[in-house]
C-alpha cells in the first residue's frame, strides 16, 4: 500500500495493526498498555467523527462531507483540539490528561513510521500547548538514560556498525557493483546510527542543537565543517541563539572518525547526520540533476546505476538535509527494541533523545557537582540544581541517616 493510499484510509483501519505491534513489545505492552491504548484510540476516533465532545462539536471532517475521518484530515490543529478536549471537556485530572494524550501521541508516531502520516503532528509544540502541566512530575521523573541503558544502546549500535562495515570491506573483488553498493549503504546507515547514538549519549548536546529544525533555518543540523575531531569540539547553535563550542569526549571521537572515513563526504558542508529517507532523496536527486540540465531519461538512467540515491548524491555532491528530531526518535525506537533494553517509564517505551542529555547530567552532577555540570550542559547552575534536585535530596537523606545512626548510637 502506498503512502497516498494509506492517507485515504480511516483512522480505525490502523488500530489493530498498531496494537499488534505494541503487543510484541516488552514491559507489559501486551497487557494493560494495549487495553488502555485501544480504549483511548477508540475515544479519539469517536471524537474525530463528532460523536464525543460538546453538543456543537461535529468532528474533523468538513460539514458538507459525509464520510469517516481519514489520515488526510489530521494535522497539528486536530491534535491541539483533542488536547483541549481532554483538558476541558472530560473533567480529567491533569496527570490523566497527560497520560491519555500520550497514548494518542504514541500511535501518531507509529503512523509516521508506517507511512500513514508525513509528520508527528501530536508532538508539535502548538499541538501540545493546551495540555495542562503534569502536577505529579518531579525533575527526577523525566527520562534519563541510566548507565546500564547507555551501555546497552551504545554496545548494540557499535556491534551493528562493526558487522555492517566488516561485511562491506571484506567483499570479494568480483562482487557485483550493485551488491557492493548495497553493502556500502548498509554500512553507512549503521555507522551513522552509531555516531548519532554516541553523540546523544555522551555530549549532552540538546537534540535541537544537533539536528535540523524544519521551522528554523538557522538550525540546519551540524555539518562536518562544524566538527574538530582533533580538538574534540563541535560548534552548535545554542538555545541562547548563538554559536558556541560543545565538547566531544573520547568515546565519541572514534565512531565519528570511522563514519567520516566511510562516508568520505564530497565537501565539509555535508551534514554529519543526513536523512536516509528514500522518498526525500529521490526527489532531491531528480530535482538537482534536472536543474543541472540533465533530461528525464538521462536522470533515470543515472539513478539506475546506483542501488540507493544517497550514493548517487555522494558522487554528485547533491547535499541532502539533516535528519530531524522525529527522524532521531524513529532511529532510537528501532535500536532500543533491537537491543532489548529494559525501559520502565510512563511516557516513553524507548530511549528518547533528550534522555541522553539528562543521563549525562545525572553523571556529571554526581561526579563533579552542579557547577561543572552546568558548564557542560550549557545551563545556569540554578537551573541544573532545580532539574537535578532529586540527587541532592537523596544525598541529604544519606547524610541524615548517617547522622541519626551516629547520634542514636551514643548511650
Automatic annotation (TrEMBL):
Superkingdom: Archaea
GO biological process: DNA integration; DNA recombination
Database matches in InterPro entries: CB, DNA_brk_join_enz, Integrase-like_cat_sf, Integrase_recombinase_N, SAM-like_dom, Tyrosine_recombinase_XerCD
Alphabetic keyword roster: DNA integration, DNA recombination, DNA-binding
GO molecular function, one term: DNA binding
Residues covered by the Core-binding (CB) domain: 6-112
Descriptive protein name: Phage integrase SAM-like domain-containing protein
Amino acid at each position: 500500500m502506498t503512502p497516498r493510499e494509506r492517507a485515504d484510509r480511516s483512522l480505525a483501519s490502523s488500530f489493530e495493526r498498531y496494537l499488534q505491534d505494541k503487543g510484541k513489545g516488552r514491559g507489559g505492552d501486551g497487557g494493560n498498555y494495549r487495553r488502555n491504548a485501544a480504549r483511548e484510540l477508540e475515544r479519539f476516533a469517536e471524537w474525530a467523527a463528532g460523536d464525543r465532545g460538546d453538543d456543537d462539536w461535529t468532528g474533523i471532517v468538513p460539514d458538507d462531507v459525509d464520510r469517516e475521518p481519514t489520515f488526510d484530515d489530521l494535522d497539528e490543529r486536530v491534535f491541539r483540539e483533542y488536547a483541549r478536549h481532554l483538558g476541558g471537556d472530560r473533567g480529567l485530572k491533569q496527570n490523566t490528561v497527560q497520560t491519555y494524550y500520550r497514548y494518542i501521541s504514541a500511535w501518531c508516531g507509529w503512523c509516521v513510521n508506517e507511512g500513514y502520516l508525513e509528520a508527528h503532528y501530536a508532538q508539535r509544540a502548538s499541538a501540545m500547548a493546551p495540555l495542562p502541566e503534569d502536577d505529579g512530575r518531579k525533575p527526577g521523573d523525566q527520562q534519563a538514560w541510566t548507565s546500564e541503558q547507555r551501555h546497552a544502546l551504545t554496545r548494540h549500535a557499535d556491534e551493528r556498525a562493526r558487522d555492517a562495515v566488516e561485511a562491506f570491506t571484506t567483499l570479494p573483488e568480483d562482487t557485483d557493483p550493485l551488491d557492493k553498493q548495497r553493502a556500502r549503504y548498509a554500512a553507512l546507515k549503521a555507522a551513522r546510527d552509531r555516531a548519532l547514538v554516541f553523540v546523544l549519549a555522551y555530549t549532552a548536546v540538546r537534540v535541537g542543537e544537533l539536528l535540523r529544525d524544519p521551522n528554523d533555518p538557522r538550525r540546519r543540523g551540524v555539518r562536518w565543517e562544524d566538527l574538530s575531531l582533533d580538538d574534540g569540539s563541535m560548534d552548535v547553535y545554542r538555545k541562547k541563539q548563538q554559536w558556541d563550542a560543545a565538547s566531544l569526549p573520547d568515546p565519541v571521537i572514534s565512531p565519528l572518525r570511522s563514519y567520516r572515513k566511510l562516508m568520505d563526504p564530497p565537501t565539509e558542508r555535508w551534514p554529519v547526520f543526513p536523512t536516509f529517507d528514500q522518498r526525500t532523496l529521490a526527489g532531491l536527486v531528480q530535482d538537482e540533476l534536472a536543474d543541472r540540465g540533465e533530461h528525464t531519461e538521462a536522470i533515470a538512467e543515472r539513478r539506475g546505476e546506483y542501488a540507493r540515491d544517497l550514493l548517487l548524491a555522494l558522487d554528485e555532491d547533491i547535499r541532502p538535509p539533516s535528519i530531524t528530531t522525529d527522524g532521531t526518535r524513529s532511529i532510537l525506537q528501532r535500536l532500543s527494541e533491537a537491543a532489548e533494553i529494559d525501559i520502565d517509564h510512563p511516557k516513553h517505551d524507548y530511549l528518547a533523545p533528550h534522555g541522553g542529555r539528562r543521563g549525562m547530567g545525572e553523571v556529571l552532577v554526581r561526579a563533579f557537582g552542579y557547577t561543572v555540570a552546568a558548564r557542560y550542559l550549557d545551563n545556569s547552575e540554578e537551573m541544573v540544581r532545580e532539574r537535578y534536585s532529586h540527587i541532592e535530596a537523596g544525598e541529604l537523606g544519606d547524610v541524615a541517616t548517617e547522622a541519626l545512626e551516629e547520634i542514636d548510637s551514643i548511650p
